[in-house]
Structures are given as structure tokens and as C-alpha cells.
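Aim 2 progress update. The chain analyzed this quarter is reproduced below.
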Amino acid sequence: MITYRPVTPKEQSLLQSYGNRADNWEEIFITDETTLSLIQNCRFYGRVRIGALQFSMRKYPHNPEGISSSVLSNCVIGDHCSISQVHLLSDYTVGSHVTLFNIGEMTADADDISPLTVINENGGRGVVPF
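Predicted C-alpha cells:
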């Protein structure tokens, strides 16, 4: 069970210094194990919860943990994720140890409860998740 807490004013300033913006910082939640320097150049809308992020490349050397250059709206992000260049991630709960890279848009609504397990096979095939 992940325990989230609101960011403090000092943490908010630090996140802003890394190029992050939020429409309401009171709706941004982290854990005590979230390394803030691993969150850079992101935009947050609505309630966003971010799990543990740590400097560790042992498990996934090509996908270091962190969230960068992405837009998150009403999301829950699990522990030890790598999210980069996601133009919009909206209304999703992302599990732990997930990598999302260079995605145009991933949105869901409250009635859609569909898990995604996708690996890019480079076969030129599209994936319809719902």
C-alpha cells in the first residue's frame, strides 16, 4: 500500500525549479521515497499522485526511473516508473515498474477499467487497448 502526502511549499518550489508546473499544487501528492529531482519539465492537472522514484539503474539500465517532459492529468503513478515524453496521460492508474515513452495521448474514463500489457514488437502493428 503506497502512502501519498501533499507536497510541501518547499517541495513545490523545488519542483518548479526543475521546470514543472501545476494548475493546483494542493492536488499534487508524493511519497516520502519520491526523489523530486527525477521529475522534470512536466505539467500537472487535477489530482496527481506519484509513487517512489529513486536513483537506481540496476534493474532497468535503459529506462531510469523518473517523469520527464510529460503532461499528467488526474493520474496515480506507482513506484519506480519511467515516464518520458508522454504528451497527455489522463485518468489512468499506472502500476509500479512501468515504462511509458513517447506516447501522444493515453486517456480513459471512469467506466473503462482495462489493463494494458503492451510491448513494442516493432512489427508495425497497431494496438487497440479498449
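The chain has one helix and twelve strands. The longest strand covers residues 43-50. These observations will guide the mutagenesis experiments scheduled for the next reporting period.
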